[in-house]
Automatic annotation (TrEMBL):
<dbReference type="Pfam" id="PF12680">
    <property type="entry name" value="SnoaL_2"/>
</dbReference>
<feature type="domain" description="SnoaL-like">
    <location>
        <begin position="15"/>
        <end position="118"/>
    </location>
</feature>
<dbReference type="InterPro" id="IPR032710">
    <property type="entry name" value="NTF2-like_dom_sf"/>
</dbReference>
<protein>
    <submittedName>
        <fullName>SnoaL-like protein</fullName>
    </submittedName>
</protein>
<dbReference type="InterPro" id="IPR037401">
    <property type="entry name" value="SnoaL-like"/>
</dbReference>
């Protein structure tokens, strides 16, 4: 039997460190939370998504802090006990406009380094009526084994 290299406490602490780095717009700390080839997926409606690479992710969050006055809180955090994954609920506070966005994210960690290799963000927001299926931009749903059709056909 193999033993996991990193514990759930490690992953929870990494997510908290990542959010602290986002709030501080700390480029070096942000990059250090990710594998170099990390990907951050988002729902449709944002320009230039997904964000590919630790460098890109760090620079985009720096832009949000500088431009929007962004600050984030972790509202709930659950880490898997038997796989390198976690789920959180968060609030993105846009202090310059006095608005906020709530959402959730799924984290996949690299089991060798213990760093974040992928984030899939989901927003608590209205659906985009212009698309047939509201989903993350450029995420390989088919390749990851997600359902591509409804289990029942309309009547």
């Amino acid at each position: 039997m193999t033993t996991a290299k990193f514990t759930p406490d490690h992953y929870a602490a990494l997510i908290r460190r990542y959010f602290a780095a986002c709030n501080a717009a700390d480029y070096d700390e942000l990059v250090d939370c990710f594998t170099p080839d990390a990907v951050h997926y988002f729902p449709a409606g944002l320009p230039e998504v997904p964000w590919r690479s630790a460098d890109t992710i760090a620079r985009k969050w720096q832009w949000c802090v500088a431009t929007l006055g962004s600050q984030w809180t972790i509202d709930k955090l659950i880490v898997s006990h038997d796989s390198p994954e976690a789920v959180i609920e968060w609030t993105h506070w846009k202090t310059k406009s006095g608005t906020a966005l709530r959402g959730a994210e799924w984290y996949d960690f690299d089991p060798e380094t213990g760093k974040i290799k992928e984030i899939r963000a989901y927003y608590a927001a209205p659906a985009d009526k212009e698309v047939r299926i509201n989903e993350l931009v450029d995420f390989d749903y088919k390749g990851r084994g997600y359902h591509l059709e409804s289990p029942t056909k309309p009547a």
